[in-house]
Amino acid sequence: MALVFLCTVANAQTDSTTVSKQADTIRIGNIIIIKNGKNDDDKTTGTHINIGKKRTKKLTYVSTNWMIFDIGLSNYQDETNYGSTGSYLYNRPNAIPLGVNDFKLNTGKSLNVNIWFFIQRLNLVKHHINLKYGVGLELNNYRYKTASKISYLETNPYITNQITSAIIIRDSIGFSKNKLAADYLTVPLMLNFLTNPGNHDKGLSLSVGVSAGYLYSQRNKQISSERGKEKNKGDYDLERFKLSYVAEVGFGPVRFYGSYSPASFYKTGLNTKPYTIGFRFSNW
Question: What is the longest distance spanned by two Cα atoms in the chain?
């Protein structure tokens, strides 16, 4: 009986802690751990756990990224000659003429939010050089400083019996909140460069190109103690189309974006060239 007991114990120890003759394989009971990432030639029965190198995701010639979000700041480069703006800046009777200080922005509250419905990437050269394109919405909010009293109007209330185009006036009251919102349907087209196509969380990503936007909404939102909250939608003589230079830089999972329009987004009067910068939340 003692001899049978010793043989049984020895056999159990061998089954539970046997180390394979192969240096890259360990067997613990019915579990086989393969360290070199290969098990095609191993016909041993049991549960196989492969702890080899992580397989690289297969790359496709066309890949799609859905619902990308941007959050950043909107601003503009003001190159207006306020001495020659014409009737677009209307001097209300007995009011001080409008100038550059009236159009200065509260930088931290002038937000840019972009919602890209999809972005596609087309392989051009070994997945290191790609073409990126898509479609989405650009939402720009230009928040003026509290000292600004400007108001956007479609017609001039100080001229009766006369049809006039959109104007900007110095209002008779102050505003606790005063902003111009301009929203665009935009199509970007960029050339993309990747240092590590197989792993988007490592390496450098750079995209440069242009975008074309169509203005579908413009409004002047104001809050004051005298009038309360007002959201005035209308045609304020903004350009319907906007062409911009665009860029995106990614360091691993962190991505930044920026845009700059070399032309003013006003048709007449003001010469302000908009730009944006911020963070992009995207899979690649």
Answer: 120
